[in-house]
Amino acid sequence: MKALSIREKYTIGGILFGLSFPLFSQFLDCLLNDLSFTWTSIAIIHQRNVIHYVVDTAPVVLGVAGFMLGVSHQKKNDSNRQLREINESLDALTYKITHDLLGPALNVKALTEILHQSKNNLPEDKQAEILSKVHESINNWLLTFEDFMSLLRHEKSGALEQNNCELSDIIAELEEALSLEIEQSGAKIYSDFSESPTVYASAGYLISIFKNLLTNAIKYAHSERKPVIHITSVRHENMVRITFQDNGSGIDLTVNGNKLFMLFERFESSSGKPGSGIGLYLVKQQVEKNNGSIEVHSTPDKGTTFIIHLPIHSKS
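^ thats the sequence. predicted structure below, dont judge the formating
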């Protein structure tokens, strides 16, 4: 049996408490007028004293008051829970920043010092190697910084503005934004939303979800083939099932399945490229904030399929 929400408890409590007023006043009036407590007596009392009609509204008035108090209390609880989650995430974020952002910066500092101290003695190929490592460290720093900023934006976000979103528009926008990555990787993206073209969600979150899954499919491409990504949508009851299927390096779910969507949990695919531990965490959080769910199926060296379930329309 489903437990009552705080709003429902306060509403029922207000109604029950409100019922005590007309019952007590009518019982007292019957007692003072030497009448038995029956429906006939209650009718007589109402005819003699119209104030009882006003008292009879107490359950409605207190029920509404209880409902409003319950809504306020629920919002307060939700706000406190959200603040606790934000504080926990920020504590973890502070720790990770000292490691993940400081590490590449120290690498760059050490490499540039080597160049500065030995620039006249190092052969050109060694200088080129060090510069390549500097570029790689800076690139890793920027990618990690972007992931952290995405996490902060997500944690600070409040109520969602949800609308009917065209899936084809989301993909078109991302293909343009990620055109350089797509071109450099040789990725092919095929999408078909003809069976269910829209979902009811936050457009901003939807773009973030799709972007993370697309960039992951490109990043973790198989070393022996170009990435091919199929994105489709079908309607299933009152939900839209969106499928992202790639032919990448895959994930060993027997080893990494439990920590796949956990914050700052990392794993290495067969491509040898470690993740930041933020992207898939954000995907799951953003899907669930839009009243959806996500599942994953994967086979190492063959590819990964993410299946997202999102509402097709508002619940209201």
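Residues 58-118 form the longest helix (61 residues).
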